[in-house]
Amino acid sequence: MGIEFEHVSKQYPDGTMAVEDFSLTVPTGRTTVLVGSSGCGKTTLLRMVNRMVAPTDGRVLIDDEDIAGQDAVKLRRRIGYVMQNSGLLPHRRVVDNIATVPRLNGVAKREAQAKALELMDLVGLDRAMAHRWPAQLSGGQQQRVGVARALASDPNILLMDEPFGAVDPLVRAELQAWMRKIQQDLHKTVLFVTHDIAEAIALGDQIVLLQKGGQVAQSGTPAELVANPANDFVASFLGLDRGELDLHLQEGPHGTLVVDSLGRPAGRLAPSGASVPGSGGRG
Ligand SMILES: Nc1ncnc2c1ncn2[C@@H]1O[C@H](COP(=O)(O)OP(=O)(O)OP(=O)(O)O)[C@@H](O)[C@H]1O
C-alpha cells in the first residue's frame, strides 16, 4: 500500500502555515522517515494520512484513492498509529489494550486476546505482563505495547510519531534494532517521524529531511544524504560540517580500530571478505 502526498498544504485556523505545497511518494513495504526540527510540520503530515488533520489544499492518496472521500473511522482502523507516549488506555490491561481495534472491528474477545498474546511475543514482551496495567510497565515496555496495538488489526500502513522519543538512549537503541528486525519480516509501509537524524539513518530506507513549512531540504536513502548532502542545511543537520559522522582508522597495540570524531572506538575492521549483514535490503 503506497501513500501519495500531492501538493498538500495545511493552514491552521489561527493562520499558521504548517505545511506548504508538499509532495511525496511513500513506497509500499518500506520505511520512510520524516526528519526535521521541531515545528517543521512532521506531525501535521503524518496525521493527514489517517485524516486526523485535513489538508487545506492538495490530496493524500492511498493505493491511488483519495482518502478525503473515505470513511475516517474505517480508514483509521486499517492504519496502525503509534504515538510518543504510547497512548495506551490506562484502565485497560495490556492484553485488552492490544486487542482494542480488533474488538472494535467485531472480533470475538477470546480470539482477539489470543492474537494479542502472539503480538506480545512478536514485540518481545513476556506474556506474564498481559494482565498488568499500563502504569505498571517501563516506558520502553509501554512503547512495545503501543506497537503491538498498532499491529493488531494487521494494517499495511504503520504511522509512527516519535515512538521512541521518550525512552532513555540505551532502550531507544534497542527498540530501533528491534524495529529494523521486525520490519524485515513484516514489510509494512511505515511512515516514521523523528527529529533525531541518527534514528532516521538507523531506520529509514528513505529519509525526507524537512525544513519549516514542510519544505523538503533533501530526500533519498541514508547513503545518498550522507554521501551527497544537497546543501549546507543538510550537511549541518547531518553533523557533517562538524565532522560528527567522520570515522577514521587508528592503528594501535590491539590492531586497527575504527574510531569516531572524538577518537572513541566505533568498531573494528571486519576480516577482509566479510559482507555487510542485510546490505541487500537497504540502500
Ligand atoms: N492545532 C494547531 N493550531 C495551530 N497551529 C498548529 C496546530 N498544530 C500544529 N501547529 C503549528 O504548525 C506547525 C507544525 O507543527 P507540527 O506539530 O506538525 O510540527 P512537528 O515538526 O511535528 O513538530 P514537533 O517535532 O515539535 O512535534 C508548528 O508551527 C505548530 O505550532
- Beta-strand content bin: 25-35%
Structural class computed from helices and strand pairing:
alpha/beta
Main pleated sheet: 6 strands, mixed
CATH class of the largest domain: Alpha Beta
Which regions have little confidence, pLDDT < 50, spanning 5+ residues? Answer: none
User: Terminal Cα separation, in Å?
Assistant: 20 Å
Number of domains: 2
Q: Judging by the overall fold, what is the CATH architecture of the largest domain? A: 3-Layer(aba) Sandwich
Q: Ligands bound here?
A: adenosine-5'-triphosphate
Strand order of the largest sheet: 6-7-8-3-9-10
CATH fold-level label of the largest domain: Rossmann fold
What are the key terms here?
283 residues, alpha/beta, Rossmann fold, 2 domains, 4-stranded antiparallel β-sheet, binds adenosine-5'-triphosphate
Protein described:
With 283 residues, the protein is an alpha/beta fold. It has 2 domains: 3-231, P-loop containing nucleotide triphosphate hydrolases (Rossmann fold); 246-282, no CATH class. It is 31% helix and 26% strand. The chain has 10 helices and 13 strands. The longest helix has 18 residues, at 169-186. InterPro entries: AAA+_ATPase, ABC_transporter-like_ATP-bd, ABC_transporter-like_CS, P-loop_NTPase.
